[in-house]
Amino acid sequence: MMKQTNIIVTTGRKISGAVENKARQAAVELGGLFVRRGEYSLEYLRQEYASDLILVVKKKDYVLDKPEGEFFFHPSMAHLRIKNLRRGMEDHMVEAMGLEPGMSVLDCTLGFAADAIVASFIAGETGQVTGVEVSPLIAFVVGHGLAELQAASPVGLQAAMRRIKVHGADYEEYLRMAAAKSVDIVYLDPMFRYPMQGSAAIKPLRDLADHREVGARSYR
Q1: For 44, phi and psi rounded to 5 degrees?
Q2: Global pTM?
């Protein structure tokens, strides 16, 4: 995974030794600086260490605190889409892919991972979904969320999350290294060229994401 060096990693105020160990490990993985939280506010740490990026490690999740808002993993729309699929309703992405159980999908623009989760739900235990994300922070927070978040419902959501393999990498480099015909579907859903600035859900993600236009390149 690529490293994000301009980040502080800390914890909540009331923590256990296990949570502090998780925070220290996160700092190592991201190439950031671990700082003991104590009674300090996040704003104090932001000013003291001159960094807008603070990863707060908690017992159950990882929250990236930024001036634009908090970024954390949640199944969000995947939760509703899987509910609808279980009711027999169609999903536009699944239909467009022609996705069936047992197929393999490479999601080159993982982001919040909602599309990858839905794809994993359909591909099932015999399929495979790989998510590639160029932002080290998005890859870290979402990757850990997929692996650790407990999701009791709908049936199949948590299992779909656990099956996704996350790679922190530039998808163009990843594709160049991939073996010929190694996946059934290559999927890209880049950031909008002209975004809706009022979207509160997307705002914390926007300045972390890759805004480059998808090029017309040929891959094996």
Answers
A1: -65, -45
A2: 0.87
Cβ-based neighbours of 18, under 8 Å, separated by 6 or more: none
More confident residue, 123 or 214: 123
Nearest of 138, 131, 142 to residue 73 by alpha carbon: 142
List pLDDT tens digits, range 70-111. 999 999 899 999 999 999 999 999 999 999 999 999 999 999
Domain that residue 96 falls in: 77-191+201-206
Using the 8-state DSSP alphabet, how is residue 37 labeled?
-
11 with 86, same domain: the answer is no
Q: Return the pLDDT at 81.
A: 97
- What does DSSP assign to residue 84? H
Same domain, 33 and 87: no
DSSP string, 152-207: --STTHHHHHHH-EEEES-HHHHHHHSPTT--SEEE--PPPSS--TT-TTTHHHHT
Same-domain check for residues 91 and 183: yes
Torsion over CA: 51, 55, 58, 63 (sign): positive
Q: Would you tell me how many other CB atoms lie within 10 Å of the CB of residue 85?
A: 17
